[in-house]
Amino acid sequence: MHQDMNMSKRDLRHHLRAIRHQILEEEFRLECQKILMKSTCVPELMNAKTVLSYWPKLEAHEIDLRPLNCWLRATGCTVLLPITEPKSQILRIQWGMFQDEKSLTLNQWGIAEPPKSPEILAEDIDVIITPGLGFDSLGYRIGYGGGFYDQLFEHVKAYKIGLIMDSCLFETIPSESHDVPVDLVISANQIIEINSP
Q1: Contacts of 135 by beta carbon, 8 Å cutoff, 6+ apart
Q2: Tell me: the pLDDT tens digits for 2-16?
Q3: Distance between CA 115 and CA 135 in Å, rounded?
Q4: Do 64 and 58 touch, CB atoms closer than 8 A?
């Protein structure tokens, strides 16, 4: 785990993108496998009826959640994927049910999204697998700067899990009063429990 990062959030995002870009493909694949194996030992995730996950941008070295998403769905869990609605007056992240990869379409940022499922309420979500460029040992994250998940966390009481490459895990990263930490951080070599449900 890296020591404290005394950078602005903007500089830290740039730094983390550079770190992820430098990860070799074989190393990336092996770390993702270890992270997903550790994830299957998390009771909150394994017992969840509804999980808001995400579909990774592999070219950006986001954790490859595809096998986990498909496995959760095969076990009967409802797997939701985010749909970004930047101009929404309520929640700028909505969600749709994941059926299969063929049903996904790319949005304006090249992120794969499902068709919208408005019948699924925010309070029905048990677990959120939260994307981030970096996480720290207190559960705080550096996201992509859009504030979508920060706003979502104000409205959803789900158990929040952050999955991260070891090279992007820090002791502490900059946080502000409105930032909401995740409850659990998983890397290839660590499981850091911040809040018990």
Answers
A1: 141, 142, 162, 164, 168, 169, 170, 173, 182, 185
A2: 555 567 778 888 889
A3: 29
A4: yes
